Predict the structure.
Amino acid sequence: MRGIASRGQLRMSFLRYALVTVPAILLLGTISGRASGAGHGNPWYDALVKPAFMPPVWLFEAAWTILYVLLGLALAMVLHARGARGRGLAIAIFLAQLLLNFAWPPLFFAMHRVGGALLLLLAMLLLSIAATLLLARIRAAAAWLMVPYVAWLVFAALLTWQIAQLNPYAEELVPQRGSADIPL
């Protein structure tokens, strides 16, 4: 044994991080979506004209579950890399894009701000790419875990852009709670 900790001890240290990061990201992502009425069953979302390439609701739920697990594992890997150069910046950028991720469902599903949601998605995408590049300097595997997420964000931005194009008056589609407005 040449190091302070054995491989088994290092593996257990990573697992301890993962046992916190994976459930935390899954929980926060789920809360963000559910609290904002994300997906099917939201009257405003159901009334939107959607692009032909829109996947079914179950695929969104499965994809986000997988992506949140991958994000949690990537974060655990970087948290585990104590002493790595650039670790603090990588974690900060990762957390910034994650906060934007959790802000997207309320902006889109609850506030009905399609244009704002698209801009937020583009910011999220840029920060996610930056985080991926920074993670690659610390742990290549963590960066590879980010690739499906970045690809999904590109797809989500394309979907959101198409929804904006197909629904120019999306904000007015269904009246807000407490509104006496009648949709035309």
Notes: The chain has one domain: 7-170. The chain is about 75% helix and 0% strand.
